[in-house]
Structure formats: structure tokens, C-alpha cells
Amino acid sequence: MNIAKQIKGLIQEAEIYSSQGLYIEAKGKYENAAGLFQKNKQLENSDNMLSVISKRISALGQKIKSLNGTGANHEISMKAQNLIKQLFSFSSEEHEEAAKLEGAIALAKFGQFERALKEFFELLRHDTVRVVAAKNILRCHVALSSLDAAVAQFQKWLTSDFFNSSELKRIRLFLQDMIDKKELNITLPEIRSDDKGSNQLHEKDDPDNVLDISSIGIIFDSGPRKGSIIEYDVSFQSGNMISLIISSKEKEWVDSLSIGHKLEDVQYYSPIAMFKGSGLVSSKTEIKSGPKRGDYCLDIKIISM
Amino acid sequence: MAIFNLKKREIECKIVYYGPGRCGKTTNLESIFKTYQKQITGEMVSINTEGDRTLFFDFLPLGLGKIRGCEIRAQLYTVPGQVRYSSTRKLVLRGVDGIIFVADSFKVRREKNMLSLKDLQKNLKEYGINILKIPLVMQYNKRDLAEEGLPLMSLEMMERDLNRQLKVPSFSASAITGDGVGETLQGCMKLTLEFLQKQLKWAE
Prior knowledge:
The complex is a heterodimer.
Chain A: H1 3-19, H2 23-39, H3 46-69, H4 78-87, H5 96-109, H6 113-123, H7 130-144, H8 147-160, H9 165-181, E1 215-219, E2 229-238, E3 241-246, H10 251-256, E4 262-269, E5 274-286, E6 296-304
Antiparallel strand pairs in A: 1-2, 1-4, 2-3, 3-6, 4-5, 5-6
Helix pairs in contact in A: 1-2, 2-3, 4-5, 5-6, 6-7, 7-8, 7-9, 8-9
Chain B: E1 3-5, E2 10-18, H1 25-35, E3 45-50, E4 53-67, E5 70-78, H2 86-93, E6 98-104, H3 110-126, E7 136-141, H4 155-163, E8 170-172, H5 181-200
């Protein structure tokens, strides 16, 4: 075949591949064309053509490089995240927690770690999935920042009494395995069954033995209001779980409370006495309808009193 | 796995478009979205794309009407074709009922087609699914480019490369013009519903 025609064919092919997004193939064809030009310097305008082709090869090289550097891990819209949750929850409606867990795992697998973290923290409330949720929280921390963040989260749980010792043992084993795989010289503290203080409420304790609490005072442990106290009437109590209605004016404070957050300094008022103790944020929900619309319902688990 | 609501007589099945990067999976869905407006039951969603490259997946819900007294709905998905998104492809494949393997007819993409088919087989196997047993059809895409004198593989060559062992129905198509797109989907739906009929006995 005539060399000029051959080169023309290669360039046309390269252009089509490029327009189809097949950059590697396009670059290959341009390189073939450049090779032919170099071997046939007598061809008309060969230096100019070589220069044009070199520029195209370089531009394609940049495109390939930029595509290889593109990650699928950036945050996508809330709507898209909701769709992922919906489409990748395979459990039936009767297994609501399992379906929610699958949705959260799918979010994490699609790199939506911030949203996944929120979902996993919500799932800590459910006994059937809380350990799996905790493990995934640690995974998300590792993906988002570092193993140190996961270790810090574990230490937080260790001191918060949110998990019982059997659950903590399973979570510890999981995290230690992650640490060992990274060959880091970190050993997590062993969990013993008697690790919890005697004045604390244990899972096995009968929640019915908890006194009726009529109101509580929470002392701010950080932020501009550090040291001041805020008091709320208890709207509902079931055993060691109390519910409070928080005004929408306190949105900033409510937002700062994550599920599992330990309130170190709480005053529990019963009809007979006031007790000092600590509590754990168990859930928070924005009230969507009725006269309290816009306010929040905050569930606090009494840890010690 | 298809959802069969016995009470409402509804079947919802999942169809996945699989294939190498840039083979035209998203273009297939776009073509269906344009052509079958009456059957579309929601919007076509492309989750996370970089330019026109799918990084996560595309999703299109379709209502196919009643077959033997049963309302049939299909959810169409595409996977990201680029090699490095293997874990995403596997995730999208979960619960699949039928597969359309979109092969690129360009000669230069011959190896990529074969690698992608191998990747499909591997991902299915990890879910305990045998590629020889799942409803699967082949689509040989970009056939329109032959008119532009571009080096395409012959259909015979593509059959030999990709379908010698599988022996599944195959369709030549041009997703960009819409030729063969509907036929491919119909072929896949036919196989999928026959398969589900054997499993669920919904039409008896």
C-alpha cells in the first residue's frame, strides 16, 4: 500500500478511537503513523505532520494519565446515595435492620464513607447488627483517615460501656487483625469480663430496677458553653433509656452529638433525690410532624447513676 | 434474584449489561430510554460518571406489561467497564437474573472482550453462579462502523472468540443508532422469564 495512504488510514483510525474514548488504541495508531513518517522523511510536509502527531500523542497520554488517576471515591449526591441504599439492600422487609446494614455496606463499597459512617452509627442501636456495624465503622475510619482513627474509636467504645465485654472482644479481635495485617506495632488492650466499674449499669442488669427519672441536667463538656448546665424534662422512660424533647433552637448542640457519644456529666433528678452519673446518646430523631415539628427527640441510655 | 410477589402477581427481575470499557453499555440503556418511553417506569440514573465513563453504574427501571397474568418489571443496570472497577462490577452483579454481554466489534478490542467475559465468569462464580446456566445473551456492538471502513471483527470471529462454548443467542447491534438494541433486550428477557418460570412456576 502507498505509504501516504497507509498513514492517512492510521490517522483516521486514531481519530475514531479517540472519539470513542479508546485513548490507548488511538495513541497506538498515532505512534504507528509517527513511526512511518520517521522512516519516510521524503514525504511531503513530514516534519509538520510529525509535530502535529506528537502533540496528539502527548495530549492522549495526558488523558490516559488523568483517567487512571480518577477515583470513584468522591462523594455523590444524597439522592444517588439513597438510590444505592435502596437498590443494594437485598433482605426482605421483615429483616429491616439487615436490609439497612446491607445498604450501609453498599454505600461504603461505593466509597461513600461519610454517609456510611452515619448509617452504621444509627445501626449500633440494634442488637442483631451492632457488632457488624461497629466493625464497619472501624473500616470506614481506616478508609477515611487512618488506622489511628479506628483505634481512637475503639478506645472510645472501651471507656464508654456502650458494648458489653463479649461484643468488645469480637470488635477488638477484628481491629487487632487489621492492625496485624498492616504490620504495625500496636496491641489493643485485652477485654476482660470484669472490666466495667461496679457502679455502672450492665447489660444484664434489670432495667426495671432503674429509678424513675423526671428530668435531667446535662453539663456541657466542650464548646463555648463548657461547664454550663442545660435541663430537660423526661418525656418518656423505659428502664434505663430516657427520651428528651430538645428544642430546634439547640440544633447546633444536637448536631454535635453523635450516636454513641458519652455524656460524662449528667444529673438525674428522681422524685426522691438527684444523682450524678453519665449517659450515652442512643438515638436522635428530628420530629417531622405535629406541634413539636422541627424539634428533636434524643434518647439517652443511663450508664451510671 | 428476582422478586416474585405472589399476591400481587408481580415479578421484578434484574438485568445487567456487562462488557469491557467503552463497548456501549450506557449507550444501550440510553437508546432503550429514548425508544421505550411508554415502558419506562422511572428515570434513568447514572451514578457517578467521569465524562461519559461509568464509574459506578447506570440504572433504568422498565415495566414490561402482563405476561400470563403476571406483571413483569425489569431493572436494567450497567457495570463500569474499566478493569480496575472489578469490585463495583461484582457488587452490581449481585442478585442478577439475566445478563447482556456487550462486546466491542473493533478488532483492537478483541482481547478486552475476552478478558471481560472471563471477568464475568469469575464474578458469577464467586456468587455461586455458573455462567453456562444463567440467562445470558451476546451483543456484538458498533456494527455501524463497518460502513466507515474501520477494522471490525467479523461476526464469525466474535462468535468463535466469545460464544463457542457458551452457545447463547447473539445479536449484532449499533447502540448509537438503536439497531439491535431492542432485539437484544427482548432476547435476554425471553431467556430470563423462561428461566424464572422453571424456578418459580409463576405462569402455571
